Amino acid sequence: MNTSLKLQILHLLHENSTISHETIATMLNIDTETASRLIEQMEREKIILRYSTVINWDKVESQRVTAVIDVKVTPQREVGFDAIAERIYRFPEVTSVSLMSGAYDLQVVVEGYHLKEVARFVSEKLSTIEHVTGTTTHFKLKTYKFDGVIFDDREDDQRLVIAP
Amino acid sequence: MSLYDRLSPAVKNIPSSGIRRFFDLANQMEDVISLGVGEPDFVTPWHVREASVDALERGFTSYTSNKGLPELRAAIADYLQDFHLNYNSEEEIVVTVGGSEAIDIALRTLLTPGDEVLIPEPSYVSYRPCTILAGGTPVGVPTYAEDEFRLTPEHLRARITPQSKVLILCFPNNPTGAVMTEEDLRAIAEVAIEHDLFVISDEIYAELTYEGRHASIAAIPGMRERTVVISGMSKAFAMTGWRIGYAAAPADILNLMLKIHQYTILCAPVMGQMAALEALRNGSAEKQKMVDKYNQRRRMIVKGFRDMGLACHEPKGAFYAFPDIRSTGLTSEEFAERLLQHSRVAVVPGSVFGEGGEGFIRCSYATSVEQIQKALERIGDFVKTLSL
Ligand SMILES: Cc1ncc(COP(=O)(O)O)c(C=O)c1O
Fold first, then answer.
1. What number does CATH give the domain B4-44+285-387?
2. What is the ipTM of this complex?
3. What spacing in Å lies between the alpha carbon of B204 and ligand 1's midpoint?
4. Using CA positions, which residue lies closest to atom 7 of ligand 1?
């Protein structure tokens, strides 16, 4: 019972991290203490890692560049991909790292303020890491949808103000 | 007598909709949060829209059979089985232009001039005018907050006369959110059989039942033969603009309804029918997501009203809360009008839904959580100014 409740709480928080525990409790027909307890538990278990906001950066900082880099590596004995992944994700300019199936191994997302800055990171930092055998860099040109949110401004309510 | 004086008195005498006046008021104002909308805030799920685009691209642009696409009727028959309703898709189902058309053709088929139509109220606004246009006489049957706005056999019996012919049931109900359990319906069925009434059961909100499963009166023994079940895609599948509904009834009734449909409508639009087919075949997961969201908002809005000191029965279906504003000393029209003007929240005064609606306001929770929260804050502040 608690797992489905936890899931429902997670979905509500994912949609709006500013929602109060009280509102969550009302929406799910539980008491506020239970909601708070489950949320704290999920925070402790690091299921909930951060309460963040989806931002359309294109509207704020036109300078910002994001690169998605496909990285091929030779896995190491014992630790496999994890040790190399860690060496990469420790860099603060790296915003995400995932292990992928298919033509390459790690997908690395890097953010910076200039194309040059990102290019330098790839050539000087990423490519020189031991066991990294190749990189392909893609620069992101425009975000249409991120984390389930569509970024255009057309989603107005088309309905009449009052209808039977 | 001038030219226009000779226009149909029956039509001229239909009172203009009370909703219309509020619409005009609200429509002129900016920054209005509307809880006045009787349709889903969700856009039709993409897979449905996509299927309709595909159908257009493939050239589905012609008439269909009068009754509607056979595959769609088969899908409707399948779907109705979930509610223990068995209808033959060849002979007992017609696809209509919304549940609205189905209401009209059912009444026109069942009524002869002078017949009385029993309409539990508060209720959806089209039953009275459609009854009058079909030559019948509407007779309201009050339902009460104390009964959670369910129809009771006692109140029904009190309005039955020798002219009574049709009973219209609309559960889950617009505007009260009331639902009838199978047991509640059995008691009504008994009265209907005793007085040999036909029943038009508008079950368009069936899917939006939040405790247990929706029960249809047509599934109760002795009722199928005298019942027209009406439903449609508008509410549960967020497809109001597509204008697809349907009616299911025994062939003896349906064939007559079909005659009207055939000569006045020909057939429901094919693009909408293709979309409805996709929704019925592959739409249950998306539908369930929407139902879950409505349920969460429902709990929030009901608690919101109770917290601000307004009594609010628990609406167990549809997407409306119907709080009691009698404690404010205002009529529902005054309340709604002042709320709109002072706090920019649009609601619908209960009085427009007929007898028993006075003293209540209809608040739709088919809108986002954020909007509901803001609206509740504004209404709460407004109510505080009243009790000063
Ligand atoms: C109770 C009820 N029946 C029928 C309808 C008509 O729906 P449609 O014609 O879109 O199927 C509505 C719409 O608001 C309704 O609330």
1. 3.90.1150.10
2. 0.84
3. 7
4. B99
